[in-house]
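hiii so um. not sure if this is the right channel but i have a protein structure encoded as tokens and i wanna go backwards to a sequence. like what aa goes where. can anyone help
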């Protein structure tokens, strides 16, 4: 009975070790340069175990890229500060977690990663935009436009390393980008 009881716990611990190693490796090396062997070595397991649990590098990446944007509740935010709050929030998330940067790197070249990125932003950002009362007919478009600004900012600052973007303090970036995001969120839709 003890062996059966320890089996699932070992399995859960192995899965957790694989995911932890995968997140770190994808964040450090990007999708293309990350190998199953490197992840297995980091997790101190045989590479066959990674394949047993996740089937492929794409399957592992999709599992490792479960990412919560932890968006703030926009219902309590004054309508004229929505853009500012979102841009500041996203900069804080990018600064504090390499997983989203790894996902963005991978999404540029890998269809599975791009699909994962689309899902994260459509589900989480779309739901947040819908909560504060924009016209339902434009919610998806508005969320897409916000995502284009946020992802463009992240690409130039954290992936490409464009010097003016890297050197800018977060408060300055908020001041530049927030009005555009605000317009996407609350401005009149084009005719």
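sure thing!! here u go:
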């Amino acid at each position: 009975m003890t062996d059966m009881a320890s089996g699932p716990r070992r399995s859960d611990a192995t899965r957790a070790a694989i995911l932890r190693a995968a997140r770190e490796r994808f964040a450090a090396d990007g999708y293309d340069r990350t190998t199953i062997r490197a992840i297995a070595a980091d997790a101190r397991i045989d590479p066959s175990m990674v394949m047993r649990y996740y089937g492929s590098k794409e399957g592992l990446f999709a599992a490792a890229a479960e990412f919560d944007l932890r968006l703030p509740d926009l219902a309590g935010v004054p309508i004229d500060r929505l853009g500012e709050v979102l841009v500041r929030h996203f900069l804080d998330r990018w600064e504090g977690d390499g997983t989203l940067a790894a996902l963005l790197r991978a999404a540029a070249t890998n269809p599975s990663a791009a699909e994962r990125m689309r899902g994260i932003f459509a589900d989480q950002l779309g739901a947040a935009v819908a909560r504060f009362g924009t016209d339902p007919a434009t919610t998806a478009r508005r969320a897409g436009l916000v995502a284009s600004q946020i992802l463009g900012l992240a690409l130039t600052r954290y992936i490409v390393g464009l010097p003016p973007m890297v050197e800018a303090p977060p408060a300055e970036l908020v001041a530049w980008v927030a009005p555009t995001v605000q317009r996407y969120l609350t401005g009149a839709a084009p005719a």
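oh and Residues 75 and 137 are 19 Å apart (CA to CA).
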